[in-house]
Amino acid sequence: MGHRNNVTEFILLGLFSNQEVKEACFIFFLLCYLLILLGNLFILTTIRFSQLSEQPMYFFLSYLSFMDVCFTSTVAPKLIIDLLAQKATISYDNCMAQMFYTHFFGATEIFILVAMAYDRYIAICKPLHYTVIMRRRVCYLFLLVSCIVAFIHSIMQILIVVQLPFCGPNKVDHYFCDVFALLKLACTDTFLIVIVIIGTSGMLALLTFVVLVISYVIILTSLRTHSSKGRHKAFSTCASHITVVLMFFVPLIFTYVPTGNSFSDDKIFALFYTIIAPMFNPLIYSLRNTDMKNAMRKVWLQKLFSKGK
After folding, report:
1. pLDDT digit string, tens, across residues 123-138
2. Which terminus of the chain has fewer Cβ atoms in its 10 Å neighbourhood, N or C?
3. pLDDT in tens, 232-262
4. Nearest to 249 by CA among 114, 136, 152
5. How far apart are CA 169 and CA 162, in angstroms?
């Protein structure tokens, strides 16, 4: 309830206090953000202008790239600007909005990764039924359900935080409005709320990660019955998925699963799932995927030749 709050803005302490380090990091994170935008735009354009857009896996990959851009854009621009600011502040309303969008886009990414794992399971373990099961309508349904569940999850986080009284300290020990960093400033006992957050965000990440690991174990085990060529292609695709899952989920789990007062490294972990993973995802999916490499050559060489004429 807003009338219980004396705080109208928060001060983000960020990653570093040394001004020279902050200036160096400004260049580094700006380059990272540009790579995220360009890399994911590259993936989106390649899929859009190639026959890969007809395949369910690349349908999901295009939306994963889009969510990567949206997810990072809720955090990175503010982080980059704040590195050069004398005092990094964010209004209460903008803080709540940032927290909502990070949870929404992050949770949507989680469910899209689940959909991609399911797609690979059907393609490898039930190839004769693949075209029937993974129709375009089913893909859109997966995407819609992912967004709806992510929206519900995000609203739950916001409803929890907006009920808290903030009556004095307003220095957030983070570079964005993360829920645990805000809970430390609340003028009330937040023990039960921390348990609820761990039970929602933490368990969502942990259980989804376990399901994904089990699914990929089943998929990789079933590859033994395939030909060596088919096995190599399927393994290459699955290896890309597994790498992305590990880079995204491991730091996310370390952030949201430990006990409430032990988040000393949460800013470092957050860097991995908000910036590092989205930056490497395009490289992982393009360099380790034969279909993507062939599509990129075809699409971009055609564009170069068409410009040259």
Report:
1. 888 888 999 999 999 9
2. C
3. 777 777 888 888 999 999 998 888 886 444 4
4. 114
5. 16
In three-state secondary structure terms, 173 is coil
- Spell out the alpha helix ranges (H) of the chain: 19-48, 56-73, 76-82, 92-125, 130-133, 136-162, 179-183, 191-197, 203-222, 228-256, 266-271, 277-287, 290-308
Are 238 and 120 a contacting pair, CB within 8 Å? yes
pTM, to two decimals: 0.90
CA 28 to chain centre: 20
CA distance 38 to 154: 28
Q: Which residues pair with 11 in a beta bridge?
A: 89, 171
Q: How many CA atoms lie within 13 A of 239 on its CB side?
A: 14
Name the residue type at position 61. Answer: L
End-to-end CA distance of the chain: 64
Q: Is the dihedral of CA 29, 45, 154, 263 positive or negative?
A: negative
Residue found under tokens 């949206």? 70
Q: Measured between alpha carbons, how far is 164 from 182 in angstroms, rounded to an integer?
A: 10
Q: Under a CB-based contact definition with an 8 Å cutoff, are residues 98 and 90 in contact?
A: yes
